[in-house]
TrEMBL record:
This is Cephalosporin hydroxylase. The keyword Nucleus does not apply. It comes from Pokkaliibacter plantistimulans. Keywords: Methyltransferase, Transferase.
Length: 259
């Protein structure tokens, strides 16, 4: 094997070791539980917009985007827009790299790669900030429930013709809502790509962590994922990603479509 192949074999061994280390995974859950009271995820931004994401998960998403090379990313949940800006900037990087490799001149405002963001309430100050951002030309925002017939139909229409589709679900975290999102959007995921379900960690946290929320252990994104997988055998949980990251909100939430 060449040096790169040897390094990749070492990485695989590292990830397997992390996956086998139950104490390390338990420690990660304890750390997440303790840092949650400080609203740690609220403290980070991407290209100027609050992202409300764990940095590890952003890095993991970057790796998935480079591997899959999607031309469309669908996201439920917009908030301040940092995640949309992140996805749009990753697509811009794909375009730039492909232009460099092919020797073409890149027109950053004329790319077919797009991000669709859905939120039941896009606040005016957030919409204005997102629309004023340099990445705005790549972003389409839809306001409404992500599981309403009208919004689902709009997304499916917008997704027509795209060859590689990635989906990220991060809105209402109740079992019924996430399961409805999975049933609505997972079918748009192309083989080899992913449907990422965020905040599955709710299932592994103490119930009293969510006193003012409609979700809790037993009524969470992870329970929805487990229900969805029972009747959608073309998807599997890519556990290598969570083992690699350790600090992640998406334990058992990185769903890869195999066919």
């Amino acid at each position: 094997m060449n040096p790169h192949e040897l390094f990749q074999e070492e990485v695989k061994s590292n990830i397997k070791g992390l996956g086998d280390d139950q104490d390390m995974q338990a420690l990660s859950r304890v750390w997440i539980r303790e840092v949650a009271r400080h609203k740690w995820a609220y403290n980070f931004s991407w290209l100027g917009r609050p992202a409300i994401q764990f940095p590890n998960d952003a890095w993991g998403l970057q790796e998935i985007i480079w591997k899959v090379k999607p031309d469309l990313i669908i996201e439920t949940g917009i908030a301040h827009g940092g995640s949309l800006i992140f996805s749009a900037s990753m697509l811009a990087m794909l375009d730039l790299c492909e232009a460099i490799e092919s020797g073409q001149i890149l027109d950053p405002k004329n790319s077919s790669r797009k991000v669709i963001g859905i939120d039941i309430d896009i606040r005016s100050h957030n919409r204005e900030a997102i629309e004023a951002h340099p990445m705005a030309s790549r972003i389409t925002m839809l306001e409404g429930s992500s599981v309403s017939e009208d919004i689902v139909a709009q997304v499916h229409k917008l997704a027509e013709g795209y060859q590689s589709v990635l989906v990220c679900l991060d809105s209402n975290h109740t079992h019924d809502h996430v399961l409805a999102e999975l049933n609505a959007y997972a079918k748009l995921v192309t083989p080899g790509s992913y449907c990422i379900v965020y905040d599955t960690l709710i299932e592994d946290m103490p119930a009293d962590m969510f006193p003012d929320r409609p979700w809790c252990p037993g009524n969470s994104p992870k329970t929805a994922v487990m229900e969805f997988l029972k009747s959608n055998e073309e998807f599997f949980v890519d556990k290598d990603i969570q083992h690699k990251l350790q600090i992640t909100v998406a334990v058992d939430g990185f769903l890869c479509r195999s066919k």
